[in-house]
Amino acid sequence: MSTGVTRPAIGDWRTLEELGALQDEQLPRTLAAAARSPFYRARHRGQTPMDRAELQDCPLTTKQDLRDQYPFGLLAVERRALATYHESSGTGGVPTSSYYTADDWHDLTERYARKWVGIDASDTFLVRTPYALMITGHLGHAAARMRGATVVPGDNRSLAMPYARVVRVLHDLDVTLTWSLPTDPLLWAAAAERVGLRPSTDFPALRALFVAGEPLTPARRSRISEIWGVPVVEEYGSTETGSLAGECPDGRLHLWADRVIFEVYDPASATTRPAGRGQLVVTPLYREAMPLLRYNIEDEVELSYAACGCGWQLPTVRVLGRAGAGFPVGTAVVTQAVLEELVFSLPLDYGVMFWRARAEPDRLLIQIEVVDRYRSAAASALATAVGRVYDVDVDVTPLPPGGLVPTQVLTNSPDVVKPRSLFGAGEDWGKALLYH
Ligand SMILES: [Zn+2]
């Protein structure tokens, strides 16, 4: 089902007023789509909002609403019009469904493809995010295909793609762009070093690493960039919405406000504002299959309309996630973000890429992987740095490489077999039918 809608591209508006006008122009179609959704029809008792002022009176759509509507309670088109069905990776319990038409996919891929480094036909694009149920792998895949790139579908949850194979593919296929969690390029670097390859020099085709899906501190991000010698380009979104923000050449995340209306919700006062700090609330403007009105993503963010040097007339966002949550040690509350910043501020030469910490009631235990030569230097530098931030007893233990991420995980290339029932005399038939 094609709506014949033209979607804006960056540069189609020059001011924030023009951006608002683009939103207002599209909003009636969004509200009409919502009126076709059983969930919103029931919620609004047939009185669907007609304009932005009435939209502001609508209750927020919550994650619980989406779970309650599993699987098709928000479906606003005929089932036959659907192109894909997805579920987000919840931690147990009822899944959250999302579904898209072919036209929805045009909007999704265009938003994803807004990468300042560009994606074109000369690129070889390794997709290293999940394909199973989630949207992320398909999103990178579809956007790279739309730009004419060669896609290498790698996944990160498939037994067919262990780290050793990722390194081989990156190297032998001259991969130029990758799409993964921020942690993955660190693991590839360790896996590359295990086979005698240096990330900064032995992968000359690589030109950028696209990452999303985990909080990423500036220190870790610069470290990944230093290790590989290419920019790390961040992206922010969810399976229920696709890409919501992408990076500009100045390294800031901009919200795609030409495609989505954004608000910030303050749970304490139960009010929303156009900007400031709070939970991110979204109304996607180009959605057919599953319209969402004022959907609360529940990520803590800071949204700003202050001008950015890049010149894009789009608000910027800092995603704080749930990173604010910490663990008590004595009277201090220790957070992952602060520790990550400290670990990745250690000198590059120390080679510290992997760490873990445990907040005991009376002290903080930290383990780092570090080569023998820098054991004591790295441990004492980190203990000092932590002591400057937190008034806690800290115990940093240096572990040899392989101490946190087993070498076997980085070097293994397990066979992926096909299911089989007939075996020869003397063959082990214990794996009959099991292919993993
Ligand atoms: Zn910018």
**Beta-strand residue percentage:** 15-25%
Bound small molecules, deduplicated: zinc ion
Q: Low-confidence parts, pLDDT < 50 over ≥5 residues? A: none
Rough outline? globular
Q: Tell me the structural class.
A: alpha/beta
The beta-strand count equals: 19
Please report the number of helical segments.
12
CA-atom Rg in angstroms: 24 Å
Going across the major beta sheet, what is the strand order?
4-3-5-6-7-8-9
Helix content: 25-40%
In short:
With 436 residues, this protein is of the alpha/beta class. 28% of the residues lie in helices and 24% in strands.
Describe it for me?
28% of the residues lie in helices and 24% in strands. The relative contact order is 0.11. The protein has twelve helices and 19 strands. The protein is globular, with a radius of gyration of 24 Å. The mean pLDDT is 94. With 436 residues, the protein is an alpha/beta fold. The chain starts with 15 loop residues before the first helix and ends in a 25-residue tail after the last helix. The chain has a seven-stranded mixed beta sheet, with helices on both faces. It has a five-stranded antiparallel beta sheet with strand order 11-10-12-13-14, with no helix packed on it. Strands 17-18-19 form a three-stranded mixed beta sheet, covered by helices on one side.
